[in-house]
């Protein structure tokens, strides 16, 4: 499992008040990574990148852009292109 201390350092979080939330985010991201890539073990650096993006979306889930005067909104449907490329680079094809 990806290291919560590394995630906290990158997010500049020093207290322990949201450790449970961060652990849950890491767990979800690791499960999603394994599901998408069909790997037996997760790449911690990619899982942490996924967790950072998921954490940064909390409270604004899905909002990519919002204009107040024109009332225009657009939403994230997935991870950033960078993270998607990292995931694709680790994806194993599975024959059915």
Tell me about this structure.
With 96 residues, the chain is mainly α. It has one domain. Helices cover 53% and strands 9% of the residues. It is built from four helices and two strands; from the N terminus they run αααββα. It has helices at residues 4-11, 19-37, 44-57, 81-90; strands spanning 63-67, 72-75. A two-stranded antiparallel sheet has the order 1-2. Helix 2 crosses helix 3 (44-57). The chain is globular.
SSE blueprint:
Layout lengths: L3 H8 L7 H19 L6 H14 L5 E5 L4 E4 L5 H10 L6
Antiparallel strand pairs: 1-2
Helix pairs in contact: 2-3
What is shown here, in short?
The protein has 4 helices and 2 strands. β1 and β2 form a beta hairpin.
Q: What key attributes describe this structure?
A:
mainly alpha; 96 residues; 53% helix
Tell the overall outline: globular
Strand content of the residues, in percent? 5-15%
Mean of residue pLDDT values: 84
Domain count, please report it: 1
Helix content: 40-55%
First and last CA, distance: 28 Å
Please give the count of helices.
Answer: 4
Structural class of the helices, strands and pairings?
mainly alpha
SSE string, helices as H and strands as E: HHHEEH
Q: Please mark out the parts with pLDDT under 50 across 5 or more consecutive residues, or reply none.
A: none
Number-wise, the strands total 2
Radius of gyration: 15 Å
